[in-house]
From TrEMBL:
<keyword id="KW-0067">ATP-binding</keyword>
<feature type="domain" description="ABC transporter">
    <location>
        <begin position="6"/>
        <end position="250"/>
    </location>
</feature>
<dbReference type="InterPro" id="IPR050107">
    <property type="entry name" value="ABC_carbohydrate_import_ATPase"/>
</dbReference>
<protein>
    <submittedName>
        <fullName>Sugar ABC transporter ATP-binding protein</fullName>
    </submittedName>
</protein>
<dbReference type="Pfam" id="PF00005">
    <property type="entry name" value="ABC_tran"/>
</dbReference>
<keyword id="KW-0547">Nucleotide-binding</keyword>
<dbReference type="GO" id="GO:0005524">
    <property type="term" value="F:ATP binding"/>
</dbReference>
<dbReference type="InterPro" id="IPR017871">
    <property type="entry name" value="ABC_transporter-like_CS"/>
</dbReference>
<dbReference type="InterPro" id="IPR027417">
    <property type="entry name" value="P-loop_NTPase"/>
</dbReference>
<dbReference type="InterPro" id="IPR003593">
    <property type="entry name" value="AAA+_ATPase"/>
</dbReference>
<dbReference type="InterPro" id="IPR003439">
    <property type="entry name" value="ABC_transporter-like_ATP-bd"/>
</dbReference>
<dbReference type="GO" id="GO:0016887">
    <property type="term" value="F:ATP hydrolysis activity"/>
</dbReference>
Length: 259
């Protein structure tokens, strides 16, 4: 059986007396889109924060490609090949597209200009940025030197996804990537997510939009009251089934879930 590229076993996270995560398991396989859904308070955000190094679980284990890891901060997760695009995009509006893609990972010029004077190699960063955007098939970003503040919401989302894809060698986590986008821009982002999967990346998609979830996801992880209620697929269950599981109107036994 294929080894999950990212796996969580028995994650528990407490905030005082509140159980935010109650022994949650999750498995993400190479080249798939796994949607994580659930009502507010179901533990989605806490789960993602544990997987991306923002929070440290109280108990439980996390594995990357079968090897146990321990994330103490987001940099640990990034070093393990896990990039996260949060709902509030961490882009620098005044900088151009290339500078945003390499934000925090700037390439310096070779020789004394880079090592002593710490001068950036803007030409190389623009070249690599253009290559990355071309590889992802992002047709809405034509001018790499364009300031991000001049871009539309969908284009900004594309910049954030391109940055995550460029450095997330294993996993890209997307938190509500189509929130506050129009119909046309949402369609562009959905295509980008599919293209991301087609390049071999494993994607975790957190979304409240059931239509998008069922259009994109290979499997769907359902959270309820801090626990994993079920893992279903768009082929075996309907949107109504998913909502019923989320709300507790329908209960799933372990034997009916699929991992």
């Amino acid at each position: 059986m294929t080894t999950p590229v990212l796996e969580a076993r028995g994650l528990v996270k407490l905030f005082g007396r509140v159980i935010a995560l109650d022994a949650v398991d999750l498995a993400l396989y190479p080249g798939e889109i796994l949607a994580v859904i659930g009502d507010n308070g179901a533990g989605k955000s806490t789960l993602i924060k544990c997987l991306s190094g923002v929070l440290v679980p109280d108990t439980g284990k996390i594995f990357v490609n079968g090897d146990e890891v321990r994330f103490r901060n987001p940099q640990d997760a990034r070093s393990a090949g896990i990039e996260t695009v949060h709902q509030v995009l961490a882009v620098a509006p005044a900088l151009d597209i290339a500078s945003n893609l390499f934000l925090g990972r700037e390439i310096r010029r070779k020789g004394p200009l880079g090592s002593l004077l710490r001068m950036l190699d803007s030409k190389e960063m623009r070249r690599r940025s253009a290559e990355q955007i071309k590889n992802l098939g992002i047709g809405t970003l034509q001018n790499i030197g364009q300031a991000v503040e001049t871009l539309s919401g969908g284009q900004r989302q594309a910049v954030a996804v391109a940055r995550a894809s460029a450095f997330g060698s294993h996993v890209v986590i997307l938190d509500e990537p189509t929130a506050a986008l129009g119909v046309r821009e949402t369609g562009q982002v959905l295509k980008l997510i599919r293209d991301l999967r087609d390049t071999g990346k494993a994607v975790i998609l957190i979304s409240h939009d059931m239509q998008n979830v069922f259009a994109l996801a290979d499997r769907i992880h359902v959270q309820r009251l801090g626990a994993r209620a079920a893992v279903i697929t768009p082929k075996t269950h309907t949107m109504e089934d998913a909502v019923a599981i989320m709300t507790g109107a329908r209960r799933m036994t372990t034997s009916h879930s699929t991992d």
